[in-house]
Structure formats: structure tokens, C-alpha cells
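tool_call: predict_structure(chain=1)
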Amino acid sequence: MSEIENTGAHGTLSAIQLDVTDEASIRAAVRHVEVNHGKLDVLINNAGTGCRDPDLKTRLTQCLAVNAVGSALVAEAFRPLLLRNNNPYSIYVSSGAGSTHRNLNPSSGKFEFDEAYRVSKAAQNMIAVREHIEYGPQGLKVLVMSPGCVVSNIRGNSEDERNAWGAASDPDVAGNTILEILLGKRDSDLGKFVVKDGLYAW
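tool_result:
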């Protein structure tokens, strides 16, 4: 939190503990926001994990629990607070690894995790699409956003893993894409899979 505060950004910052795999934790976070703010302007569903366990069932269970089920539960829990707003956004941070179209290209997602990660992100994409269909008419602006390959410890904690062996970009690039969404510059892409320079096919 101190790192964010030291950027010189305006406004106030507070942190809430939230475990997307724990429904009690989700309910507590929703209650905190409701009591202190009364509504929610934006929900960015950005919790994500990969798994390198040799057992396929373990990999699928862990990735789906966070990336798909967790996203769905958080979206459902916070949605009533979003719908109190007159311009609410629900943004799912996904991955090109979850695009069926991109997965048909054998060279796609070179630095991403195995099939469990890809399956979980494809499932998350479907959750977002269904939210768009059901709640878009009520004014909820839903988008899926891929940050691309950015510096992150989702691949591991070594410097090479964090930087995807030199292929990862600065997370600020992805942050600017989210900012464009929140400024309404991507409203023509509601219900779609957006990236910095355009769209991904599902």
C-alpha cells in the first residue's frame, strides 16, 4: 500500500482483506464497503493463480477455485452495490491464454501456465459474458480485459520468471488500459475481450 501512496496519486487509499475462495471473507468485504461507502463504482476482478502441481486434478481444482469460481462469487456479492451506481463497471482481468481462438495457434501463450490455467480463464470469460447479458440491460458495464504478459510473480518468484525471461512488459501499460475503460473510452466494447490495442476473439 505504501508503494502506491508514494506514487503521489491523489485521493485516499484503504485496504480490505479479501480471500476469493472464502465466502465469509467476501461477505465481510462487501459489508465493509456498504457500511463505509454505500455503493461501489468499479469492481476489478483481478485475483488469479496458476499451479504447477504434477497432478492434473490438483491443478484444475486450484486454478478454477480462484480464477473462475472466486471471480463469480465476488462479482455476485458486490453486484448489488455496483447497481446502486449510475455508471458502474465490472472488469474481469483475464488472459489471452483463455481465448479459444488464440489457443488454436500452437505458438500462443508461450509463457503462460498449462491447460488448467487456460481452462480457468476461459471459464472466467464465460462468467463475464453471462453477467454482461443478464445485467448489461440494467446499466452494468462489463468487460473482460487482458493485461498481456506483464511483470508478475504468477509465473514464479525468480527474476526470470517474474519477467517472463525478458518478454514481460511494465504493468503500467495494463493499468493505462483499465484507466481508459474507466474513462469510458472503451464503452463501444462492452461485453467483449479487450486488450491495449484492440480486441481478442473468444
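agent: The first helix runs from residue 2 to 5. Proceeding to next step.
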